[in-house]
Amino acid sequence: MSLRYALLGLLAEEPASGYDLTRKFERALQRYAWHAQHSQIYPELNRLAADGLAMVVAEGARGRRTYAITDKGRTELRSWMLNPPDVFVVRHEFVLRLFLLSTLDPDDARAVLRPVVEDSARELATLRESIDTADTTTPPGALPAFGRLVAEYGLRSFQTMHDWALWALDQIDQADTTAPEINHSE
Amino acid sequence: MSLRYALLGLLAEEPASGYDLTRKFERALQRYAWHAQHSQIYPELNRLAADGLAMVVAEGARGRRTYAITDKGRTELRSWMLNPPDVFVVRHEFVLRLFLLSTLDPDDARAVLRPVVEDSARELATLRESIDTADTTTPPGALPAFGRLVAEYGLRSFQTMHDWALWALDQIDQADTTAPEINHSE
DNA sequence: TCAGGCATGTAACTCGTTACATGATTGC
DNA sequence: GCAATCATGTAACGAGTTACATGCCTGA
């Protein structure tokens, strides 16, 4: 049911069409939080409308339909936000690979980790730049957009991953040079 | 296909039954990396065996079947580990809620964030304790188990989340006391 | 005019969840 | 004997992916 609330949440920020929402997923949500394609989004929008949680507020060129959240939708969304489950659904292929690093020999493990260092550094730089731009263009004293909170979370997460990957490479090197002959049994 | 590799990876560490694997998911993978129930694990084990990537190596009481990874399975797993996709699948309901914090008013946002501070502190303490125990029981000079790498990643991730949530609460307070009258329009 | 992007949809398939179902073993 | 746990399975359903399908607008 998370897709339903992801859509309601995006609609709560501003009205949007299925096409808009698809692009929002690609740009922001997909990398950190949730993934969905247009083939899933359009039917769900129709269901949201059928359930009275969203409604079509404009029809434009090329069959474009702009949806907005309804009061009922807002109530439903708020209730979902304030009642988190005890255990969250997590599916993270990257972290899965970290878990399975133990199945590789040191050289292979290093080969997996090195791109992690570079990728996280690149993500970090991109995010920091867009945060700096946003911070300087925001009038002083204004409410910081909540998007700023998420960006900060992303920034810290990439920093953590970067630092960790460097540390992990170091750990592997140490183990490898200290006692390389213990390996290669079996 | 990630489930397939998660299972292969766990079998690469040691032979296990479907029942064992189900518990491993519950204990470790589920919270951080991937989730699966027994109803998905048993059929997939049968498929792994049919494809020659795993095989039954022992049959025990109560119909228990212990599977082990085959050489073909190891080759397949290694190839998967060394060829990561450009973009990872991420489904993280917790982070989704962070994104949608912007749809809540400051009081509601605080109500969402406060438990995050507490939960992450608790997870942090538990993880640190089990890491300390593992570190002191590991004979000095031995190869650090790769599980130690993941534990460290978990530790740092929870620390990051904890620090971020405190920072976010502070940001909300500041915005709320600086310019509370800007809100409540519309 | 025509390429590229806007815009929506659906069918077939696979993945994942929930619920139902069954029985064996162990320890008290 | 019986409760708890071990142990595996499947059917029905819902969620998510891939591929196919269609047509409209805008700008060069």
Explain what you see.
Two copies of one chain form a homodimer. Chain A is mainly alpha-helical. Chain A has two domains: 2-82, Arc Repressor Mutant, subunit A, CATH 1.10.10.10; 93-180. The first copy, chain A, has helices at residues 2-13, 18-32, 38-50, 71-82, 93-99, 106-137, 146-178, and strands spanning 16-17, 54-59, 65-69, 90-92. Chain A has a three-stranded antiparallel sheet with strand order 1-3-2. In chain A, strand 2 and strand 3 (65-69) form a beta hairpin. The mean pLDDT of chain A is 90. At the A-B interface, helix 1, helix 2, helix 4, strand 4 and helix 5 of A face helix 1, helix 2, helix 4, strand 4 and helix 5 of B. Chains A, B: InterPro entries: Tscrpt_reg_PadR_C, Tscrpt_reg_PadR_N, WH-like_DNA-bd_sf, WH_DNA-bd_sf. Chains A, B: Residues 7-78 form the Transcription regulator PadR N-terminal domain. Chains A, B: Residues 90-172 form the Transcription regulator PadR C-terminal domain. Chains A, B: This is PadR family transcriptional regulator.
Keywords:
Tscrpt_reg_PadR_C (chains A, B); 9% strand; WH-like_DNA-bd_sf (chains A, B); Arc Repressor Mutant, subunit A; 67% helix; 186 residues; 2 domains; homodimer; three-stranded antiparallel beta sheet; PadR family transcriptional regulator (chains A, B); mainly alpha; DNA-binding; WH_DNA-bd_sf (chains A, B)
Describe this structure in a few short sentences.
Two copies of one chain form a homodimer. Helix content of chain A is 67%, strand content 9%.
